[in-house]
Amino acid sequence: MSPMRLSSVVLDAPDARQLAAFYQRLLGFVVREEEPDWVLIGPPGGGVGLAFQTEPAYVPPLWPDREPGEQQMMLHLDIEVDDLAAETARALAEGARLAEYQPQDDVRVLFDPAGHPFCLWTPES
């Protein structure tokens, strides 16, 4: 066994609790740990989780534009779905917004309520 194990990915946000609640609804995750400015959620059966920390100076990233001096996207989440249209509609109903630029037919790029880009995608048939 490796001495290191990835336990979570942490996203900054203006409100950690609000963003954690969005992903909790979207992914069906449960709260594992919670502090005033930090929340860890994860799959009910275990596995790598998502954590959120409040960052008062948070600036949403730009995507796909890359303007010098502006906050750039440093990572994004890829979320596999069975029905792209239905899950895109559900994500929008939960508070996501659709990116103007959509680079692929089998992927939908969205932004979470804090402006982090994430992708819904379907495996090739």
TrEMBL record:
| Coiled coil feature spans | none
Write down the superkingdom of origin: Bacteria
The VOC domain, residue ranges = 5-125
Q: Return the PANTHER family for the record.
A: CONSERVED PROTEIN (PTHR35908:SF1), HYPOTHETICAL FUSION PROTEIN (PTHR35908)
This protein's name: VOC family protein
**Top-down, what is the taxonomic lineage of the species of origin?**
Bacteria, Bacillati, Actinomycetota, Actinomycetes, Kitasatosporales
